[in-house]
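Lecture 7, part B: from sequences to assemblies.

Below are the input chains for today's worked example.
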Amino acid sequence: MTNEFIKQKLTDKFGEQITNWEEPYGMLTFTVPAAQNLKVMQYLYDEETLRFRFLTDLTAVHFPDRKGEELSVVYHLHNLVDNARIRMKIYVPIETPDVFTASQLFSAANWMERETYDFFGVNFVGHPNLIRILNVDEMDYFPMRKEYPMEDPTRIDKDDEMFGR
Amino acid sequence: MGRPVQYNTKIKIVKMPDGYTGEGFFATSFDKVVGLARANSLWPLPFATSCCGIEFMATMGSHYDLGRFGAERMGFTPRQCDMLLVAGTIAKKMAPILRQVYLQMAEPRWVIAIGACASTGGIFDSYPVLQGIDQVIPVDVYVPGCPPRPEGIIDGILKLQDLVHNESLRRRGSEQYKGLLESYNIQ
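Predicted structure of the full complex, as structure tokens:
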């Protein structure tokens, strides 16, 4: 299975909707409209010649400078039969970070989406239990967003007198 | 013919406390005896979360052998133990659990923070990490190091034995101690 073949199959099915074709380090990467993420993944899952039935990783990236598409959700899919990997990206605005959940398609997405919600605040619509997974429940911010200063000089939880910072 | 047993003649016995001796009696103050007994039979409760825990395992092993100081048996239940050894990074999510373990220990109880992370957060100067366990429970001895060598941990335990040995029997009932616990919202 070659990248050209996967690209051809997806273009035949979805046409111009899939953009930004890239191959960094040989791994096929493309961007899908946020509303289409489940349709594309379902097609990649069901199509007998593609068989991307394993979700390796799911995470998000924050691009503070890209207005209207600040948050990117990245899916890594794996075809275990032909050992082929692809990377699928979607972009959503940070004001309404709504993404359809992949947890019905891949059970592995359940916790990974919780983690992505925990750190980036992506709202996975339809997720059965979208609560924080790694951070404390009381946390009221999304720590991996690039919107915080590197260090707050006024913080008091480190005692300067004893630790000489 | 002697029996095939080699007696260890290099045993060190703790010094007898000051007191009055006479024919068939010995009189001393009660807290000296209690202090002596407590200090030399501390039951450790290891709360190991990372690399300091590995150093602590070495401390308990045959080479460094913490058993020499009367802390032979690890109790993996807080209800039996006197000495809580917190070895490793404590995440903020772990803090309530650590606190629960401390609350389950019976008085008198002592806490040693082993290593930079347990003492101050160490290199993990970051949002998910508790910047020192003394934010949630009172600590008696801090052992520096990242991680500390077993010698360091033993030194910390000897320091704690000093504290235990010289602790007044009235300390746990004192207003000062109650104030300390209240500052941690305990009881």
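Note for the exam: Helices of chain B lie at 30-39, 51-60, 95-104, 115-120, 150-166, 175-183. Keep this in mind when comparing with the next example.
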